[in-house]
Prior knowledge:
The complex is a heterodimer of chains A (about 120) and B (about 140).
Chain A: H1 2-14, H2 34-54, H3 59-78, H4 84-116
Helix pairs in contact in A: 2-3, 2-4, 3-4
Chain B: H1 3-6, H2 9-34, H3 46-51, H4 60-68, H5 72-78, H6 80-101, H7 111-134
Helix pairs in contact in B: 2-6, 4-5, 4-6, 5-6, 6-7
Amino acid sequence: MDNENNDRESEIQQLPEPQYDQGPPPSAYQPEPAESSSQWLAVASLICGIISILSCCCWVLSGILAVVAIVLGIIAIKKNTPSRGMAIAGIATGGTGILLTIISIVFIGFASIASYL
Amino acid sequence: MTGLHMIDWKHVCYQAGKLLFLAAAVVTGIVHKFGTAWMELLPPCLFHEVTGMFCPGCGGTRAVMALAEMNLIKSFFFHPVVLYAAFAYIWFMLSCFLEQRGRRLKIGFPAIKCLYIGIAVIIVQFLAKNICLLALDISWL
């Protein structure tokens, strides 16, 4: 029995120590992660959407910004951004901007027709 | 990894910012050359025409024109978010420039916080302008 115990102890002592993955050594430069990069898309989408709503009177600018907001928002969602809510808000504000632009164009069209009659 | 995943979107925003600078330079040139009389050609605000109140964007164009004339106080009173956005833009471009050049001085840019502050400014100025108009009969614009 004693011999068996001694053998086990010697086996345990011979086992190599577990190697834990400690990752790369710390350095001053930390590259920006991909998730953080895609956050910028969502932010840009929301900014374009808000400006498209605010500038709905200038329908050319509003229309362009609304389309840009929707495209950026869709790309952000496709990239599984952590700021998914913000990307959805960007698409929603872009959609609202397009709607307001269409209403504005129709209103201006009717107003100009009415002024001719 | 597709092409979209490889793009550094902060860098794309920085490049778009450079284009925006060109657009701002063109607007400033137009304002200095022709004045602001061409603003009469712009269509009226639909929200203001229908309700009689100011919309959240009312005064924005005048604020941009005042900023192009470097009249900061006038720009702030027309629409404070224009001046705020101009400062945020300068901060963002400077932070990207320093980051790209690898300078030791890195100022950073809290984009999401800046965005929320901007939304708050829009809401507050919208409420303030309409409260002044409806309750006190004072028109800011």
